[in-house]
C-alpha cells in the first residue's frame, strides 16, 4: 500500500494539495502495477520430495515481498537430478530440494515475526527468463554444491548483485561441494573470496542477536548420521561489495532448508528450526534495508 505523508504549509492551497496527492497515488499505483506486470506469474514445478503440497490461502494475492528460489542447472556430480529429458528448468532437479514445503513454512514465520507483507508462496526464478531476476530483491539457492551455472547465467547474476540484489545459499557440505560451488561463484564474482562474517556485522543483529550459532543438521543428519562429506564445521560466510555490504550470504555445512521444512515436525529438534528461522529473518531484513 502506498502512503503519502502530508505536512501543512502556511498559505498552501488545500484543494491543490488533495489533487496533488491523488495524482501521486495514481502515479505510484501505476508504477507498482507496471512492475508487477513484468514479473513472472506464480508457478510450481515437480520436486524431488513434494508434488502435492497444498497451496496456502492467498497464494495468488499481490504482496510487497516474495521469497525467490533460484533455479539452476545441475553439475555432473549432482545426486538429486531426476529431471530427465525435460531438463532442470522443469523441476525434479537439485534446486527443488525441500521445495515447496520449506519455503512456505519460512514464509509463515516471516508473516508472524515481522511486518513484511510477504506472499505466502515462493517464486522459482530462472536466470534464463529474460530480466525476471531483477524483480526479486533477494534470491535463495539450496544445494549450490551441485550447481553449474552457464557463463551467461553467471554474468546475469553478477549484474543482479551489482544492482543491489542479495543472494543467499544453503545446504552444501564438505570441501568437494565447496569447490563445485566456487567454480560457479568464482565466475559470478571473479576475484572475490568469501570470508567469515564478523560477529559484530549487522546481519547477525538487525532483528535477532545471533550470538549463539551452531551447526544445523537436516532430518537426515539425526540419529547418529551427523554431517555429510566431511562438513563437520559450520560456517557463516559472505562476499562483500566494495562498500562493505553483503551481496552473497553463504551457509555451508548446515541445512537451514530442512530446519524450515520440518519446523512443524515434533520429531525434529526445535532449536534447529528456531535458529534457522531467526537467521533467515535477519537475512531478509538485511536484504531489504542494505
Structure description:
The chain is an alpha/beta fold and 290 residues long. The protein has one domain (43-289): Domain of unknown function DUF4159 (Rossmann fold, 3-Layer(aba) Sandwich). 31% of the residues lie in helices and 10% in strands. It has helices at residues 14-38, 101-113, 151-162, 174-188, 256-261, 270-289, and strands at residues 68-71, 123-126, 138-142, 166-170, 195-196, 237-240, 246-251. Strands 2-1-3-4-7-6-5 form a 7-stranded mixed sheet. Helix 3 packs across helix 4. The longest helix has 25 residues, at 14-38. It starts with 13 loop residues before the first helix and ends with a helix.
Q: Key terms for this structure?
A:
single chain, 290 residues, alpha/beta, seven-stranded mixed beta sheet
CATH topology: Rossmann fold
Q: Order of SSEs, N→C? A: HEHEEHEHEEEHH
**CATH level-four homologous superfamily name:** Domain of unknown function DUF4159
Q: Tally the helices.
A: 6
CATH architecture: 3-Layer(aba) Sandwich
Q: Radius of gyration in whole Å, from Cα?
A: 20 Å
Number of structural units classed as domains: 1
Structural topology:
Layout: H1 14-38, E1 68-71, H2 101-113, E2 123-126, E3 138-142, H3 151-162, E4 166-170, H4 174-188, E5 195-196, E6 237-240, E7 246-251, H5 256-261, H6 270-289
Parallel strand pairs: 1-2, 1-3, 3-4, 4-7
Antiparallel strand pairs: 5-6, 6-7
Helix pairs in contact: 3-4
Amino acid at each position: 500500500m502506498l502512503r503519502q505523508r502530508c505536512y501543512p504549509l502556511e498559505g498552501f492551497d488545500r484543494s491543490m494539495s488533495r489533487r496533488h496527492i491523488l495524482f501521486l497515488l495514481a502515479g505510484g499505483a501505476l508504477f507498482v502495477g507496471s512492475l508487477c506486470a513484468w514479473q513472472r506469474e506464480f508457478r510450481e514445478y515437480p520436486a524431488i520430495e513434494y508434488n502435492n503440497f497444498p497451496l496456502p490461502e492467498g497464494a495468488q494475492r499481490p504482496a510487497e515481498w516474495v521469497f525467490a528460489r533460484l533455479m539452476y542447472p545441475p553439475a555432473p556430480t549432482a545426486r538429486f537430478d531426476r529431471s530427465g529429458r525435460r531438463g532442470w528448468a522443469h523441476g525434479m532437479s537439485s534446486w527443488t530440494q525441500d521445495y515447496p514445503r520449506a519455503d512456505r513454512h519460512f514464509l509463515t514465520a516471516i508473516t508472524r515475526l515481522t511486518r513484511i507483507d510477504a506472499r505466502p508462496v515462493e517464486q522459482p526464478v530462472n536466470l534464463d527468463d529474460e530480466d525476471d531476476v531483477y524483480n526479486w530483491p533477494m534470491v535463495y539457492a539450496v544445494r549450490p554444491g551441485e550447481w553449474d551455472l552457464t557463463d551467461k547465467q553467471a554474468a546475469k547474476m553478477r549484474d543482479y548483485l551489482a544492482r543491489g540484489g542479495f543472494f543467499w545459499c544453503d545446504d552444501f557440505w564438505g570441501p568437494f561441494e565447496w569447490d563445485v560451488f566456487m567454480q560457479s561463484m568464482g565466475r559470478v564474482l571473479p576475484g572475490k573470496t568469501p570470508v567469515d562474517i564478523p560477529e559484530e556485522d549487522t546481519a547477525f543483529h538487525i532483528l535477532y542477536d545471533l550470538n549463539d550459532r551452531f551447526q544445523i543438521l537436516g532430518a537426515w543428519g539425526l540419529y547418529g548420521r551427523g554431517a555429510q562429506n566431511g562438513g563437520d564445521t559450520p560456517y557463516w560466510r559472505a562476499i562483500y561489495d566494495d562498500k562493505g555490504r553483503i551481496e552473497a550470504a553463504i551457509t555451508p555445512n548446515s541445512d537451514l532448508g530442512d530446519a524450515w521444512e520440518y519446523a512443524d515436525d515434533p520429531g525434529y529438534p526445535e532449536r534447529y528450526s528456531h535458529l534457522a528461522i531467526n537467521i533467515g529473518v535477519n537475512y531478509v531484513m538485511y536484504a531489504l534495508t542494505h
